Amino acid sequence: AQSVTQPDIHITVSEGASLELRCNYSYGATPYLFWYVQSPGQGLQLLLKYFSGDTLVQGIKGFEAEFKRSQSSFNLRKPSVHWSDAAEYFCAVGPLAGGTSYGKLTFGQGTILTVHP
Amino acid sequence: SQTIHQWPATLVQPVGSPLSLECTVEGTSNPNLYWYRQAAGRGLQLLFYSVGIGQISSEVPQNLSASRPQDRQFILSSKKLLLSDSGFYLCAWSVGPGQGSSGGTYEQYFGPGTRLTVT
């Protein structure tokens, strides 16, 4: 069964500092990979996604993520964090196209990001 | 463009009372639909998903049920709420299988959520 691990429950960074949120997955092949962001009391917003091709993907709000097959990782990065980036971040993996899982995603437990001024 | 709505936004219900949460999607047809629950510090738990009208799959045994009476409407219900039903309920949709060039890419789009407190 596929699984997603976000090792860091809570990360604190200073505004302007760089950020890397870790995500490791367990899957039989290269899955579809996603990062979502959730502000308090709101729904999840898709930041970026990886399906194939270039392993460095760009997303919204200045985020990027790099897929590393050898490490089964899909870490999220941002070169300079803004106070408005404070939120909870979720990594998710999805099934291979043509599968019978009906588009179900497996989510990590989330990483809460706190930004100090 | 597609939008997803959930209501109510917040709800406070006593134990033993019924529940009905509604989710509707606009701007797409035959979407896959999902209900999640998010309890504090516990991530997202998939409750139900649906690939078409009247087609509901349950992920976990529980006090809740779901229905899809129309293509873009997804309802979460309970006959008698438990304290443990408290949480943040999220509805999501994704492109259904075979839906154009984006079919099968599986990204889900979430609604704003409903905060349910059972007292």
Secondary structure blueprint with pairings:
The complex is a heterodimer of chains A (117) and B (119).
Chain A: E1 3-5, E2 10-14, E3 19-21, E4 24-26, E5 32-38, E6 44-50, E7 56-58, E8 64-68, E9 73-78, E10 87-94, E11 106-107, E12 111-116
Parallel strand pairs in A: 2-12
Antiparallel strand pairs in A: 1-4, 3-9, 5-6, 5-10, 7-8, 8-9, 10-11, 10-12
Chain B: E1 3-7, E2 10-13, E3 19-26, E4 32-38, E5 44-52, E6 55-58, E7 65-70, E8 73-78, E9 87-94, E10 109-110, E11 114-118
Parallel strand pairs in B: 2-11
Antiparallel strand pairs in B: 1-3, 3-8, 4-5, 4-9, 5-6, 7-8, 9-10, 9-11
Describe this structure in words.
The mean pLDDT of chain A is 91. With 117 residues, chain A is mainly beta. In chain A, strands 2, 5, 6, 10, 11 and 12 form a six-stranded mixed sheet that branches. In chain A, strands 3-9-8-7 form a four-stranded antiparallel sheet, with no helix packed on it. In chain A, a hairpin with a 5-residue loop joins strand 5 and strand 6 (44-50). Chain A starts with a strand and ends with a strand. Chain A has strands at residues 3-5, 10-14, 19-21, 24-26, 32-38, 44-50, 56-58, 64-68, 73-78, 87-94, 106-107, 111-116. By secondary structure, chain B is mainly beta. Chain B is 0% helix and 54% strand. Chain B contains no helices and eleven strands. The N and C termini of chain B lie far apart (38 Å). The mean pLDDT of chain B is 90. Chains A and B meet through strand 5 and strand 6 of A and strand 5, strand 9 and strand 10 of B.
For this entry, give a set of tags.
heterodimer; A: 117 residues; mainly beta; six-stranded mixed beta sheet; four-stranded antiparallel beta sheet; 12 strands; globular; B: 119 residues; seven-stranded mixed beta sheet
Number of helices of chain B: 0
Work out the radius of gyration of chain A: 14 Å
Percentage of helical residues of chain A? Answer: under 10%
Main sheet record of chain A: 6 strands, mixed
Shape of chain A: globular
Strand content of chain B: over 45%
The major beta sheet of chain B can be summarized as: 7 strands, mixed
Q: Unreliable runs of chain A, pLDDT <50, ≥5 residues? A: none
CA gyration radius of chain B, whole angstroms? 14 Å
How many strands appear in the DSSP assignment of chain B? 11
N-to-C order of helices and strands of chain B: EEEEEEEEEEE
What class do helices, strands and sheet pairing of chain B give?
A: mainly beta
Structural class given helices, strands, pairing of chain A?
mainly beta
